[in-house]
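ARCHIVE CARD
CATEGORY: sequence design from structure
SOURCE FIELD: tokenized fold
FIELD CONTENT:
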């Protein structure tokens, strides 16, 4: 399965709402996959993202192989490190943490990944990743040793997103972080979307259908939900077609 990015663009042009379920290999075992993916398949989810901030070697690949047995949804890597790359997925969000100033996550990790990507069939999608404060320190903040952008400084958030687009990023990902206490505000999403010509991904802290609708109604092209499903699998019942 390829052409993930072009399918995202065509879906947006048709007015479709895209939803990615984020699976963290550090929190989901291979044995748990079949039951969980059954719930995903019965929901309105359009993509499966796989990745986490801290994941054991081979855990991502083992989980992706297992997940592919039970779904035809595209599987997109959302890696916290080069050790999470696997050719068994369909695409890779090639994430640059443009909200931070740690060169390792702006270019360093990407250079390390090239030897693995040279012979890979993964569709590589350059993605500008922007971490926004959410009321608690997230795993991303700890691992990358960077500070999130202030929720109050919407101009800085908008300018960072636009800078990412002008640098050539094909997606912009606004993230409150795993387990965020507060999702991104409607105002923040709306102002960022108004400035972008590339698709906008929104994730972090979304725990209800109402919060999901708020993200969509204010410009999110693709919404990512992870922790809410980990904590309460019955949330899937609210997201049936």
């Amino acid at each position: 399965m390829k052409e993930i990015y072009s399918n995202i663009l065509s879906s947006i042009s048709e007015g479709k709402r895209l939803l990615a379920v984020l699976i963290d290999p550090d929190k989901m075992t291979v044995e748990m996959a079949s039951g969980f993916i059954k719930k995903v398949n019965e929901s309105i989810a359009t993509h499966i993202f796989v990745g986490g901030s801290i994941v054991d070697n081979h855990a991502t690949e083992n989980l992706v192989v297992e997940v592919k047995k039970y779904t035809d949804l595209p599987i997109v890597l959302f890696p916290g490190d080069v050790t999470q790359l696997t050719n068994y997925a369909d695409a890779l969000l090639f994430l640059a943490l443009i909200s931070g100033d740690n060169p390792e996550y702006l270019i360093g990790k990407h250079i390390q990944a090239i030897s693995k990507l040279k012979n890979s069939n993964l569709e590589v999608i350059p993605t500008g990743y922007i971490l926004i404060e959410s009321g608690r320190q997230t795993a991303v903040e700890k691992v990358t040793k960077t500070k999130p952008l202030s929720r109050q400084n919407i101009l800085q958030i908008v300018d960072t997103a636009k800078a990412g687009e002008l640098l050539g990023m094909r997606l912009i990902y606004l993230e409150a972080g795993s387990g965020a206490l507060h999702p991104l505000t409607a105002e923040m999403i709306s102002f960022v979307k108004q400035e972008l010509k590339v698709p906008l991904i929104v994730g972090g802290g979304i725990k209800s259908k109402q919060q999901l609708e708020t993200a969509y109604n204010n410009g999110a092209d693709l919404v990512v939900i992870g922790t809410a499903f980990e904590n309460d699998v019955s949330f899937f019942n609210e997201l049936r077609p």
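CARD ANNOTATION: Strands lie at 18-23, 47-50, 75-77, 91-97, 123-131, 171-175, 200-203, 222-225. The mean pLDDT is 92.
SHELF: design records, drawer C
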